Amino acid sequence: MNKLRFYIFNLMPYPHIPPASEIQSTWVSLSNKYYDPHRGQALYKEYIDQLAAAEQFGFDGVAVNEHHANFYGTMPSPNIIAAMLVQRTKEIPIAIVGNAIPLHGNPLRVAEEIAMLDVISGGRIISGFVRGIGCEYFNNGIAPADSVERFNEAHDLIIKAWTVDGPFTWQGDHFYIPNVNPIPRPIQKPHPPIWIPGQGSLETLQFIAEHKYTYMMVFSPLWFTKMAFDGLREECNRLGYDAPKTMFNACVPTYVAETDEQAHREAKAHLSWVFNTGLKIPDQFFFPPGYMSTKSFRNFTGLLQKGKVKRQTDLTYDELIADRYIIVGSPETVKNELGHYCDEVGAGGIIGPGGPFGPMPNWMVMKNMQICSEEVLPEFREADGLPDYQREKPHSYRSLAELAAVKGRPEETARSLVTGGGDTLIEHRMAHVPEVIDPTMEQAPAERPASAS
Amino acid sequence: MSYIDVVEKIDVPKPLRHYTAPHFEQVLGLQIAYRREGAGEATVLFHGAGFTRMWLPFYAMLAQKLDFIAPECPGFGETPMPKWVRSFDDLTILYDQLFEQLGLNRIHLIGFSMGGWAASEFASYYPRRLKSLSLITPVGLRLEDDPGVDIFQLTPPELMDRLFKDKDVMMQWLPDGENFDEGIHMYSEFSAAARLMWAPRYNLALERRLQRLTCPTQVIGAEEDRLVPNAMSDKFAAVLPHCKLTRLDGTGHEPLLERPRELADTLIAFIEEASK
């Protein structure tokens, strides 16, 4: 197994908005009048191209996610982008990190869409589940106070829908579905891998440990990520198992260029935008009432007041670098920093190295990806240079011949009564062959009077 | 689900001014905090989403003439939020039971702001329990044209600004900025409000159900309410049968704090008239 997996993550920001100093928020209240669909079209094209290119560069996966009513990430439906990537790529895993399952009226829709994607992609989908950040709830008729309960119930419903033969009835506190019977079912068994992005709350860590899911720490300083990962390892130990390294993914935007100086020169404005402008979120949007427990709100507010944590919009570039929110430098620097980072926190995957950030122009993103793949990735790979997924057996068959050879004919296949076939059900694959429909026809030439004339 | 489970056990701070220790009544497994003073017609007030745990000067004015009872809504003041309370229907059940246990058969009911919604719901289910209904800058109906600001999008200073027309009064009621616990408690109370009111911010059925009322009704609106449009009091007054609408000069959304004397006099006169 490789030392570290690299995932390209594109939030798909829409950067043509006023500077942070001129707006209250990049979320919720900043009018969508700033969104020009034609510029949006151009951006989507670049963003999707960047993600699709990750496979050629040799990254371990691509990641997309869900946010609403904001300019930081314009992917209200990540499954749509995932569907395009399924078609644009061949083998690379596609992580949807994740669907905000409490926000859906019927979580079964997520079970259906992920199953569709998993089937069409041949089992390449990583299915993340999130509550959505506080802002998301202003875009919705779901009370933030219901968020945790709805998340838990939607999760249970989706997993059951994927793993138990339908139909069955779902009688929950928040969802009632008379007939759960989603078709298709996912390829991966028992279901696609589940990633849970989070901010390190004990409840989240316990949930992940209990289900043996993969954790994805959102943008955080190194010390905080370490604390959360240590907490998760502890929870896993408490349940009697050692958490494998692959359970831990950290989000660390990373930019690499020819030299340290050049890297900072190129990345500074764009990486700063992600935090200072993209994440300009006033408290009342970030923590709508009921989204956090009063206890968590007290803890967080206390840390803010004591200066132990800062709002992301207030972080300077130097602080972002010093606290390892981000890593920027020459290939040598980035190799060392990433190596140190994952040794320190015990991460098996990094989300965000060599990728796109904020308003970064397309050419700069491609440059980042190329230098990262050629000069950083090999350091963390085995001698063959392959991503782990290429050493594993694929979840699906690569050709019809392989499918037929391994699986043979389906146990059930379409059969119908056919005109001329009497009471016998005829397999559709043969339904256009007259002698199969009516076997008596096979003798017909012999019984017919010879017509030599 | 058990009646007893609460959403969260929290420490409730005591405000520096006007705090009085409440009585508690155990109702359906929940310890409901309430304050009760005075003698006369039994009159219950449902508070708004703030300024809890206090014996307000306005309450004392009512208690001079009335048997005045002010319960604290689940999730507010010192009443915990039980897990089973998710809606105004649940509150109605809870209050009916509380009144039964306190021996309050027929009452005058006053509802302020969010409490105006709760009072409207109670009145629509138990119209014959009421001798009169008074709503002060209430919420709970749909305003098609302009729903007003989203209270949950406001910062605490923006909220204070919108609550008061009288800024001199506002300055007297600013939350104690040094008191960390008060800020936390405010989040907790707003969480309770959001549990009841996040979506939708109205109950369409009230427009039909309130027409069942036979008791005297009145709505007391603000001169200029910048939190809830004045059209809300107009609409309540139009929906409630034979309703009297008064607007108090110099008030915004907080007549209880801005014009306590005038408001108390208006209420007492109305309740005395309704009791004849």
Number of strands of chain B: 8
**What class would the helix/strand composition of chain B place it in?**
alpha/beta
The number of helical segments of chain A is 16
Number of helices of chain B: 10
CA radius of gyration of chain B is 17 Å
* Assembly state: heterodimer
Biggest sheet details of chain A: 8 strands, parallel, barrel
In the predicted model, the low-confidence regions of chain B spanning at least 5 consecutive residues are none
- Strand arrangement across the biggest beta sheet of chain B: 1-2-4-3-5-6-7-8
Gyration radius of chain A, to the nearest Å? Answer: 26 Å
Strand content of chain B: 15-25%
The topology string of helices and strands of chain A comes to EHEHEHEHEEEHEHEHHHHEHEHHHEEHH
Helical residues, percent of chain A: 25-40%
* Shape label of chain A: globular
Could you explain how this protein is built, in words?
The complex is a heterodimer of chains A (453) and B (276). Chain A has 453 residues and is α/β, with parallel strands linked by helices. Chain A has helices at residues 37-57, 78-88, 108-121, 147-163, 202-211, 222-238, 260-278, 283-286, 294-305, 317-322, 331-345, 362-375, 388-391, 400-407, 434-437, 444-447, and strands spanning 5-9, 61-64, 94-100, 125-130, 168-171, 176-180, 194-198, 214-217, 248-256, 327-329, 349-353, 415-417, 425-427. In chain A, helix 2 runs parallel beside helix 3 (108-121), helix 3 crosses helix 4 (147-163) and helix 5 (202-211) crosses helix 6 (222-238). Chain A is globular, with a radius of gyration of 26 Å. The model of chain A has no long low-confidence stretch (mean pLDDT 95). By secondary structure, chain B is of the alpha/beta class. An 8-stranded mixed β-sheet of chain B has the order 1-2-4-3-5-6-7-8, sandwiched between helices. In chain B, strand 3 (42-46), helix 1 (57-63) and strand 4 form a beta-alpha-beta unit. The longest helix of chain B is centred in the last third of the chain and has 18 residues, at 180-197. The radius of gyration of chain B is 17 Å and the shape is globular. The relative contact order of chain B is 0.16.
